[in-house]
Automatic annotation (TrEMBL):
SUPFAM superfamilies: Glyoxalase/Bleomycin resistance protein/Dihydroxybiphenyl dioxygenase. InterPro entries: Glyas_Bleomycin-R_OHBP_Dase (IPR029068), Glyas_Fos-R_dOase_dom (IPR004360), GlyoxalaseI/FosfomycinResist (IPR050383), VOC_core (IPR037523). Residues 10-142 form the VOC domain. Transmembrane segments: none annotated. Coiled coil: none annotated. Keywords: Dioxygenase, Oxidoreductase. This is Catechol 2,3-dioxygenase. Gene3D superfamilies: 2,3-Dihydroxybiphenyl 1,2-Dioxygenase, domain 1. It comes from Paracoccus sanguinis. One of its GO terms (molecular function) is dioxygenase activity.
Length: 193
């Protein structure tokens, strides 16, 4: 028997809680064109054997990536960590290019979804919005100069981490990243939170 290589291959799936299983599937299919690939429903949690009915949904997020949700009808209403800003916990999906990103923005807005951006992160460009469960979603496309910029960031990542660990203040090694965004006038709305 050979010793296995202990290395993660990829994320199998990422799971979040949802308020309503059907509404969640419908929203992701309609707005993000994801395919609904699997549903599992049980009255008992397989790993703990606790009696706790749930519906577990799986959506194809492209290239073997799977986004999953649990509806838990017997549990208290969903909440958030009150000490963490809404913008921190999110899931980001990659799209091919800026034209695709803008087309998704238009589709979402046409469907009544409030969208923030396009935000220029230099290495990539993003839009942000919330799903019907209050989860923040980001769609991002690479910048044409992404590879060169990633090489610059790779060269300073350890220095940045060390400085941050000592000071808890943003190091200036990559100040150029958001230079364009800092010059924009952004009006605060609910989506910024």
């Amino acid at each position: 028997m050979t010793t296995p290589t202990l290395k993660i291959e990829q994320i199998h799936h990422v799971a979040y809680r949802c308020k309503d299983a059907k509404e969640t599937v419908d929203w992701y299919v309609k707005n993000l064109n994801m395919d609904f690939i699997l549903a599992i429903a049980e009255d008992e949690v397989p790993s703990t054997h606790e009696p706790d009915p749930y519906m577990h949904l799986f959506l194809d997020a492209g290239n073997g990536n799977v986004l999953a949700f649990f509806e838990l009808p017997t549990k208290p209403e969903m909440g958030r960590d009150p000490n963490t800003p809404k913008w921190v916990q999110h899931i980001a999906f990659k799209v091919a290019d800026r034209d695709t990103l803008v087309a998704f923005k238009e589709r979402l807005e046409d469907n009544g979804v409030e969208v923030l951006g396009v935000t220029d992160h230099a290495i990539f460009h993003s839009i942000y919005f919330f799903d019907p469960n209050g989860h923040r979603i980001e769609l991002a496309c690479p910048d044409p100069e992404e590879e060169a910029m990633l090489a610059r960031l790779d060269a300073v990542k350890w220095e940045m981490l060390e400085e941050w660990s000592r000071t808890k203040r943003a190091p200036r090694h990559a100040d150029w990243l958001h230079a364009k965004e800092r010059g924009k006038d952004v009006k605060p709305t609910g989506i910024h939170a």
